[in-house]
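Page 37, top half.
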Amino acid sequence: MLSSEFTFSIKRTPLDEDYVPAENTRITTNFANLARGESRQENLRNTLRMIDNRFNSLAHTDNPKGDRYAVELQIVSVEMSVAPGEGADSFPLIEILQTTIVDQQTGERIDGIVGNNFSSYVRDYDFSVVLPEHMKSHPGAGVPEGFGDLHGKLFRHFLTSSAYRENFRKPPVICLSVSSNKTYHRNGNEHPVLGFEYENDEFSPTDQYFAKMGMKVRYFMPKGSVAPFAFYHVGDLTADYTDLELVSTISTMETFQKIYRPEIYNANSPATEHYQPSLKYQDYSLTRIVYDRDERSRLAVEQGRFVEERFIKPYRDVLDQWSASFAV
């Protein structure tokens, strides 16, 4: 099968206080998890307010009251069709976020960054099905051979597709938590927006996984943040994006991480020059946003099994043949 027969379609959904997850949305997705239960609208309203407040604290030039900007979010859902023609099966591949910055002083709408959050069914399969089964039968052996290869190639193919080029001007930036299994060291570099840069001695499994997607990583702790973030990018992180674009990603993803990993990102003291994150840290504050982390971990396994049954097994021969012929 030729790679051109793998086609992509994009759907957009506003992420606002009225957001209701679609039936086929990954229910472990950060934003979908917020939009469930009795507190759903209050959760969303408070989250969006936190994002706007953080944006204005970083974009403070000519912003004396701290209310000049607002951030609008769209959920970008990507589906892939495995075979051409009408009636072809399509499979939900990834979900990312796109930011738009609204200058409420001038009325200007400014494109932000696409990516930010990263949600992937196939990644659920890799980390929640393939890796645990391999570790169970091969204790201490590390990741299996070829781990993440298919996912990485599918992602690279999406970035070169007409669907991506027609919808987005720049490559994605994905901002995630640093690994609690690694130690990070401040390297002396400071960026005016991204803040203090950190390095680590060894890539984490997530770093290695994103490398197969064609993405490099740099770690920065912005001013006012208490821990560094991992910024995964394709080109030049500090040259390819404007300050406002970078601020839109920082404000959005720091808000999510304060909710989901408060031990790291809502800690009551900032990261030191030599820093190892820990989810067992007790000196942190909670947001007023309701979230069930245990449920999210359990659902990741269920969705990994869904991928196995609906995508990997039915199309294994086609995917293997395509992957073997895909030029990286």
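Page 37, bottom half:
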Amino acid sequence: MTKFSWRKTALVAAVVPMLALSACSSTGGKPADSGDAAAGGQVASTERMKIALITHAAAGDTFWDIVRKGAEEASAKDNVELLYTSDPEAGRQAQLIQQAIDQKVDGIAVTLAKPEALKDVLKKATDAGIPVVSLNAGEGVSAQLGAFTHFGSNENLAGEAVGTRLAAENFKKPVCVIQEQGHVGLEARCAGVKAKVPATEILYVDGKDMTSVQSTATAKLQASTDADVIIGLGAPITLTLLKSVTDAGSSAKVASFDLNADLAQKIVDGAVLFTVDQQPWLQGYGAIDALWQNKRGGFTIGGGQSVLTGPSLVDKSNAADVLTFAQQGIR
């Protein structure tokens, strides 16, 4: 399988056989599988740990199912009780972190989409001696907020990779669609695109309402007849933008960030040019496994640097191979 990868450091978690594991849920993603059936493999003999994974997932975003699946596999291997909760509203995410502190968890894995709202409660966690890792969002502030490592893609680098690819294919008027204003990672993606294609326009939409996303993007494409490509920052958003292009009668092409099986199929079919995948399974797996390793031997992964899980380019040349893994729910 051919793929391109831009990275500052390369520390990739090992893949292990899948073991089903129960976990508590809030909004975002599908319910965890229940039962103790194992597909094989050996569970760690270390003392059982309790780890909280707290994300900013919005309900129905399939991206988080993939993060969670990676976390569940690591938990099953590492003899970890995984407590998964999520809330897209930063204040409520902070409350979930406090809840984990009150439960005296052995570790916290957290996304930092809006870090300013989380800094005080994360200080409480580290003051209580609870190790913290971050994932997915907030790479630039992770260490300042007390995390000993971060798992994710460098979003500026990912945006620049998209911009470089679009410029090479002679696109001059992109529209970059941000579904959550103020999300540091999403803002960085579009800034990276704009750095390489200066005429890039930013369009803000309400990612919690796909009907509104579709109508807002349709209106933008109708008004901006010179827009030659529209970029979604998540698979569900991009799939909705395909409808907007049709509704607007626009000739704009569609590109994307992130991945699910439906989007991979659209790339295979030629309806979407490409996507830049941050490989979220690795983020969930790596974050949980890093906390276990820290407990197991005082190990700290990353050498003071983030562990990059992307960006990884998926286009027509490798989408069929990636689709196989996406259909398994791990890409």
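Margin note: Residues 280-297 form the longest helix (18 residues).
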